[in-house]
Amino acid sequence: MTLSALNGNLSGSADEALGEIVDNFEGYLSRDPHMSIQIAAYAHGRLVLDAWGGPHLGEDSLMTPFSVSKNTIGVVAGLLIQRGQLDLDATVASYWPEFAQAGKRDVTVRQLLSHQAGLPDADPSLSGEDLLDDHLAAERLATTWPFWRPGTSFGYHGTTIGNLAGELVFRITGETIQSYYEREVRAPLDAEFYLGLPPELDDRRVETLPIIPPLGEQGPPDTHPLRRRVFGGRGSIDLANDERSWRFGHPAVSSTVSARGIAKMLAGAITGVDGAPPLLNAETVSIIGEQQVRGHDEVLDLEGRSHSIVFQKPSASSAWGGPRSFGHDGAAGAVGCVDPETGIAFGYTIGRGPWPGGGDPRAIAAARRIGELGL
User: Fold this and answer.
1) Cα separations (Å) of 41 from 163, 242, 328, 370?
2) What is the pLDDT of residues 44-91, one digit of tens each?
């Protein structure tokens, strides 16, 4: 594979086979001078794309990608499964006895990690401060009666899956998910995908910009009560840009990353990087990538949503690869995904994502197309 330097609106380097992808993003940046992106991809562990453009993001910029952060939870779960420390079909309470309260005695780890546990919020609702604590939100969730009978439906645990998984990791390992991830995943791979940004990197951090509706357009009124409750705000904390959040490194929403860091972490876990073996073997990849749910999401009130263990599976809005691909998008446009069949690991950040939010469709199409090119 030959990487060529890019010298247009898009800087960096790309494999010569990716000319179509480069041309597309050159066009997007040319038509929108306010657009800023980073885009990166590995093919079978070799870097084939590392590029950036626009006024807000540079080669070394780091930012918070919202739910792309959840890729860290999935990889950590895979490591614990592979090492025989976590059984998806065991009850959560067998690791975390207090979780058995309020009708949750029989909830399995599989249900918890695939958004089936009925705990997208606690009673009363969790504040931002509650979420940014190693144990408080988990303790509150353990005493909460589920919003639906676990296992009968699923609904996006947008922030709480980080606190629930974090407590599960703590009960198994005796350390926070941030500490375990740093030692076992991020540091060995040297990936720019941090759960808690080190102070010495603060000067590289840029804000995640809010999405602006076109011409003042507003979405329809939200009449779904559970969605309003879960996404109705967390008090005074901006989970992307408040230092309390990105310094803590909430594993569901406030990692700090570059696009190359997203791609490298996923490549290092699933395919290996530069000839090194992957962190997860093929059996483990199959386990964590296996679809667990598909259909109506009780929190988002949307059809066609799908999850494996933590990760999103391909759907109409996240068609980034083949049927065995998985990953996670972010509310403000970022994307991180991997396809074990094509060997493509993909990362994307954007300064200000397109309306109405979720993974940028241009990035999702690029990830899919790179896989189709057969690098």
Assistant:
1) 29, 29, 15, 8
2) 999 999 999 999 999 999 999 999 999 999 999 999 999 999 999 999
Q: Give dist(CA 327, CA 338) in Å, integer.
A: 6
**Tokens 């749910």 sit at which residue?**
293
CA separation (Å) from 269 to 143, 326, 352?
34, 13, 28
Backbone phi, psi, residue 128, to 5°: -60, -40
C-alpha to C-alpha distance for 93 and 255, rounded to whole angstroms: 28
Q: How far is CA 187 from each of CA 73, 179, 263, rounded to the nearest angstrom?
A: 16, 11, 15
CA distance 356 to 360: 10
* 188 and 265 Cβ atoms separated by less than 8 Å: no
**Please, are residues 155 and 297 in contact by the beta-carbon 8 Å criterion?**
yes
Buried b (16+ CB within 10 A) or exposed e, 94-119: ebbeebbeeebeebbbbbbbbbbbbb
pLDDT tens, 167-183? 999 999 999 999 999 99
